[in-house]
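FIELD: query
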Amino acid sequence: MMHSFIPPDRFFPYLTWTDIQAMPDKENVVIIQPVGAIEQHGPHLPIIVDSAIAVSVLGKALAKLDSSVPAYALPLLYYGKSNEHWHFPGTITLSAQTLLTVLVEMAESIYRSGFRKLVLMNAHGGQPQVMEIAARDIHQKYEDFLVFPLFTWRVPHIAKELLSPKELEFGIHAGDAETSLLLSILPEQVKMERAVAEYPHGLPEDSLLSMEGKLPFAWVTRDLTQSGVLGDATVATKEKGDRLLESVSDGWVQAIQDIYKFRQPQAYKSQ
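FIELD: result
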């Protein structure tokens, strides 16, 4: 199954070139590029976590999406910018420049085919800035090309109902949320007997500076954790994962619908 979690009728590579040539209203068709990573996720999770979350959430959303909304998924881009994890075996990383080049050249191919709406659906916390730079540069070069650099977890969802306040703040990698989701989508690949709870070590106290936030400092994963886990994986459950998957995918249905209806603001009027 080359389409993995994606519904086959929503999988862009299953189209023929004549299907694409004849497609109506191509400027409003939503093309979605899921972007993941292959990187360590502690001793209990496979290194495919971010990639698996991206494509499973997207597939669930596209299955729920009304058939009147034209939207297609491109093949998952497995590799991302994961150099913060490269001290842990198995992590595969691209440089920021390589990832940026891949995204821009992919986007230009989509543009040449007549499409004008592209979503960069990123599931890895180490590369949103690359998505944003790519989106701005692409739109500047092609003013009628609307590009949306979106993070998988930033749509509305119910994580606050399921996770502890400490986990919501610090459980950013291989903790409760990601482990629960993997128990839902790839349960046979989760080794719960190896799950640990480890929160960031040595964070500054009574300081405006933080690991992530308005005033962050640069870090690599081994600065903060010995296991590679940031969060509490031991409390993860499949039931929480099922609910998270439903909730996040519902948020993506709404986001795709909004992108389909979106029109570029035009403050400047040429004379």
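FIELD: remark
The chain has nine helices and six strands.
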